Backbone:
């Protein structure tokens, strides 16, 4: 909790050491296994990784997955935000929709994916709908908590001053929801890309999940790791380049 | 100009307000006195249009302003944006001028959280008067301030009301505040509460 200079440097150093420790564990495990078929050493992955990069196969499949993640993320966040806001602000709507929410929260991702493929067909729409439906209940639950915590006095103020609907949404409601949106986005992104992989594994002919399926059948542990780690790197970049700067911007008023 | 005709207001089965009739003309300042918990804020919320769940009618102008017990600012927007976002027609220079009148023009770029509580209340006053309201509603605006600040705020409010001449309604439990600001004083008492006129200053 304390912000002393020591912990500030610790913020960069500790994660770095921790990650290096993970790498060391991998190297040692690979050495002990002594079977690159089961667990190749991290250094053995560098050449095939560069090869995949050079041929463009890896960027292509990463891109395909990323597009699906962006679509599903955008749809799930938008619809979840709207639903959560309505359910948090209206008791009666909440009473009607809450059972649905519980059903969808407890519906296994796999069931939704299979049903979407069966009903909509083995296509892109089905893939994105499946991922979106999987994620909406979580976003809704988090945003609903935020909507319940909205300050009624600010609402009253906006009402008396006749603030236009959109302006009051943007300047009164959204800033209060920002921490909840950030929490939903963060957990959302992580869950969504994992579900996208399952969707691709089961019924798409490109993307990281498809490639992992392919190399699973070829029993190529190395390539499975290359694709998985590459996408983790992409998601880390998204977190650092987009989510954290945005969060910093909307939290600025708290820190000053 | 403002015509209040409330038949009754209940929370669940409990009646809070009885029959309340009140008219306020432009330039009049009306105080409603009463002990805590009597229903002053409830009545004020009905008159301000925040609470629609009552029997009766209230006629009020469109251009209204309110000052709450708490400053009730937008803490995530800058001091000057707290004026311009609420009054889209207000130019930047007019907003700065308004801040100047309440004595916080040098703070316009800060966030409200960086101001003292007294300065936040000044900002809330600036916000109320920036739109030159036809009707101003104040809910215990000087409560929980130390004596010095309360006097300063009272003087400032007096000046702003004198310049802008809105119809003003405020609730308070302080006889002194009521006597100082109001041209007419009512008390709210009983259960369910009703209004009595106690004093009317000669015009």
Residues:
């Amino acid at each position: 909790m304390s912000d002393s200079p020591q912990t500030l440097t610790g913020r960069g150093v500790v994660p770095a050491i921790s990650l290096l420790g993970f790498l060391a564990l991998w190297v040692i495990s690979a050495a002990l296994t002594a079977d690159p078929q089961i667990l190749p050493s991290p250094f053995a992955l560098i050449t095939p990784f560069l090869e995949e990069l050079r041929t463009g196969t890896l960027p292509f499949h990463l891109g395909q997955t990323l597009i699906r993640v962006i679509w599903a993320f955008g749809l799930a966040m938008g619809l979840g935000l709207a639903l959560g806001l309505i359910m948090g602000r209206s008791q009666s709507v909440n009473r009607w929709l809450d059972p649905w929410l519980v059903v969808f929260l407890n519906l296994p991702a796999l069931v939704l994916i299979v049903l979407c493929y069966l009903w909509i067909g083995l296509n892109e729409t089905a893939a994105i709908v499946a991922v979106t439906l999987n994620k909406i209940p979580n976003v809704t639950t988090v945003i609903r908590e935020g909507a319940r915590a909205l300050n009624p006095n600010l609402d009253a103020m906006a009402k008396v001053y006749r603030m236009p609907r959109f302006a009051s949404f943007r300047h009164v409601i959204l800033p209060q929801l920002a921490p909840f949106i950030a929490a939903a986005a963060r957990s959302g992104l992580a869950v969504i890309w994992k579900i996208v992989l399952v969707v691709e594994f089961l019924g798409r002919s490109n993307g990281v999940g498809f490639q992992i399926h392919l190399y699973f059948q070829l029993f190529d542990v190395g390539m499975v790791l290359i694709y998985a780690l590459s996408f983790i790197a992409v998601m880390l970049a998204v977190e650092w380049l987009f989510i954290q700067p945005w969060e910093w911007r909307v939290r600025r008023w708290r820190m000053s | 100009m403002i015509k209040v005709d409330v038949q009754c207001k209940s929370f669940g089965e409990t009646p809070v307000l009885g029959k309340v009739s009140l008219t306020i003309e432009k330039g009049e300042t009306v105080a409603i006195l009463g002990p805590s918990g009597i229903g002053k804020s409830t009545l004020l919320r009905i008159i301000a249009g925040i609470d629609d769940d009552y029997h009766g009618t209230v006629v009020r102008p469109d251009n209204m302003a309110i000052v709450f017990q708490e400053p009730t600012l937008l803490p995530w927007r800058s001091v000057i944006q707290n004026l311009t976002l609420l009054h889209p027609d207000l130019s930047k220079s007019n907003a700065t001028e308004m801040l100047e009148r309440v004595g916080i023009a040098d703070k316009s770029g800060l966030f409200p959280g960086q101001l003292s509580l007294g300065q936040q209340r000044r900002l809330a006053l600036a916000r109320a008067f920036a739109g030159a309201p036809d009707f101003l509603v104040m809910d215990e605006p000087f409560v929980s301030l130390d004596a010095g600040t309360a006097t300063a705020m009272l003087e400032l409010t007096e000046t702003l009301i004198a310049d802008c001449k809105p119809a003003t309604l405020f609730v308070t439990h302080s006889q002194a505040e009521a006597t100082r600001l109001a041209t007419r004083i009512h008390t709210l008492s009983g259960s369910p509460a009703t209004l009595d006129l106690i004093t009317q200053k000669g015009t």
User: Anything to note?
Assistant: The interface with chain B takes residues 153-154, 156-157, 159-164, 167, 171-172, 175, 178, 250, 252-254, 256 of chain A (CB under 8 Å). Chain A has ten helices and no strands. The longest helix of chain A spans residues 165-203.
